[in-house]
User: Fold Aminodeoxychorismate lyase from Thiorhodococcus mannitoliphagus.
Amino acid sequence: MDRGFIFGDGVYEVIPSYGGYFLRLEQHLNRLDASLASIRLDNPLSRQEWRSVLRHLVGAPPTPDQSVYLQITRGAPPRRDHLCPDGVSPTVFASASPIKPRDPKIATHGVACITRPDIRWQRCEVKSTSLVAAVMMRREAEDAGALETIMHRDGMVTEGAVSNVLVIESDTIMTPPISHLLLPGITRELALLLAEEHGIRYLEEPIPLATLRNADEIWLSSSTREVLPVTRLDGEPVGDGQPGQLWQRMDRLYQAYKEQVRNGDV
Ligand code: PDD
Assistant:
């Protein structure tokens, strides 16, 4: 009767580790707290307990690169009722799996995306396990020979089914501002931080679908896929149809940051 199973009543995180060190661990745990607060569930573990669970899962450095999936549900009451009775203990689940190295073809050819209306709810900032819309969108992308579906609401880009979207125009990174319409991605935040540190201009502002279609470059960001260049959108080339110059620069910065994580330096 677990409410994760019955209602999708839970939240989750995906946290990558490199060489046994976690990338942006505190930011991930902060977002977990924010998701839990949104669904009014107390965090069953302290920060210190989470750190030790995660350490136990990936092992002591140096270890192979792994990502940890963790999920907390409201637990398993005796019967199905949308209103959860008091006194039910949350369920905590966590597992680690190897991070596959990126297919080298991605850096040379990029990936394809399709666009679709955003059919999700209005609390997309919550990293909820209710993901059937994302499952449908990813399937549509796959069926169209694409990696990801970029969604839009009222003519404005929101995000990918499982990633954030960044758009490059005139050497400036643009990405929709944080709101209830999208997940505050940790990779998105890191890409903007790296941009800031290295003097690359960026703007957090609403992006009309027409801007996406005319972009010089489009990037996707997520913990498991890092920052990816999109070279085809709805079957049309993005820019010149090749991974862009700015993406190449961002990827170098991102890979260098990962190396710092791997060495325990950040
Ligand atoms: N998804 N937006 C959505 C809807 C996502 O599901 C994700 C990540 C992101 C990127 O967030 P971050 O950079 O913090 O990973 C944006 C994870 C990886 C997943 O569901 O597997």
Observations:
- Helices lie at 3-7, 25-38, 47-58, 104-109, 132-143, 186-197, 209-213, 245-262.
